[in-house]
Each structure stands twice: as structure tokens, then as C-alpha cells.
Amino acid sequence: MKDISTIGGRLKEILFVKGVSAAELCRKVGIERGYMSKLINNKIKTPHKNMTQIAQALDISYEWLMTGVERTGTYERDYDIEGLMNGKMQKIGFFETGMPISRFHKLIYHDECVNIVSTKKMGAGNYLFLSDGDILELFRVDNFINLSWYPHPPDKDYIPIGKIITKINKEHINDKKLKLVES
Q1: Bridge partner residues of 64 (DSSP)
Q2: In Å, what is the CA distance from 34 to each residue of 11, 23, 31, 37, 183?
Q3: Helix (H, G, I), strand (E, B) or coil at 164
């Protein structure tokens, strides 16, 4: 786990877990890359400028970004990871992170990756489905006229798990952050 005792550390952690680059965040918030670099590297002692917009863009609380603490306590905790075991979806481990993960997100282990999946977001992107004891990933493309799925549309018996928000390859995760049960 990254050091989340500083604003820069919390920014690094949230960018990593959400799969967002600092450059993407700069574009979304409308700030310069140099300013973002100073934030991430803790070169600004008490930043306040743009911090509300940064927290909103990252879908985290301003309070957590600035202090690492929510009113309900710190967010240094483990989140359950679900995956297939014996053909059924169940808890198979946990992921340790110092950032808050929305209650509308699930962590699904599939194809040697931890997928942070939204049960609320829609639109174009990768989706996970459960079908006949297997997890399938399909890509949805939206345009003005129709909606398409690749490599094929979901069958009527596919059970949607959710839209993939972030995919973190297992090799990019420190073993102390990811603990899976042996199957």
C-alpha cells in the first residue's frame, strides 16, 4: 500500500486504484500538469485550490483527500473480493487499500486481475457477466443509432455483474494488499 499519510500519497493511491492518470485528472478538472505534479509530490504545504474539484472528479470525499480520515474513521481497511469458486460467486479474498471504495462497487477477481465493478454506471465499456459457472467479459459500444456488444451480445441467461471501472493486473499489486484463499 502506498503511504497515504500525505495528500500526495492519497492522490497516488486513488489514481492507481481507479486507473486514472494524473494527466487525465488534470484535463477533467482543468488544472495544469505542473500543479498536479506538485500536489502528488507534496511540494505544496497546505493545498486548497482545486481540491474540491479533484475530490469530486475522483468520486471521493474532500475530507478524506485532505486528511485521510472520514467522520466514520480512517479508510485503511480491507475490501472483500468475490470470484468463482466451485462454479459459484463467493468471497475469495480481500484487497487492502487506504482509499474509500463506493458501496456501489464490487471487487471481482477474474483473469488474474482485480476488477472494480460498478453496479450503477452504464454506457460504453467492458462489462462482466456470470454464465454457467463462468465469468465472461463483453465490450459495449454505444452510438446514436444502436448499441453493440463484442465479441457477441449477451445471451438471455447471462447475469450482469457490472461495468468494469478499473482493472488492476495481479502482478501490479503488492502481495500484502491482495490476499486470496487457496481453491
Answers
A1: none
A2: 15, 10, 9, 5, 47
A3: strand
On whether residue 1 sits in a domain, the answer given is no
117 in any annotated domain: yes
Domain containing residue 109: 77-180
| pLDDT mean for each 10 residues of the chain (183 residues) | 78 84 91 92 86 87 80 61 88 78 83 87 89 93 88 93 88 72 61
Q: For residue 115, is it within any domain?
A: yes
CA dihedral 80, 85, 90, 96 (to 10 degrees): 0
Burial (Cβ within 10 Å: 0-12, 13-18, ≥19) of residue 129? middle
Rounded Cα gap, residues 29 and 50, in angstroms: 8
Strands annotated E in the chain: 69-70, 73-74, 77-85, 88-97, 105-110, 113-118, 125-131, 134-142, 147-150, 159-169, 178-180
The model carries a pTM of 0.63
Under 8 Å between Cβ of 39 and 79: no
Which cell numbers hold the place of 87? 462454479
The answer to whether 75 and 68 are in contact (CB under 8 A) is yes
The half-sphere exposure of 136 on its side-chain side, counting CA atoms within 13 A, is 19
Cell numbers placing 8:
500526495
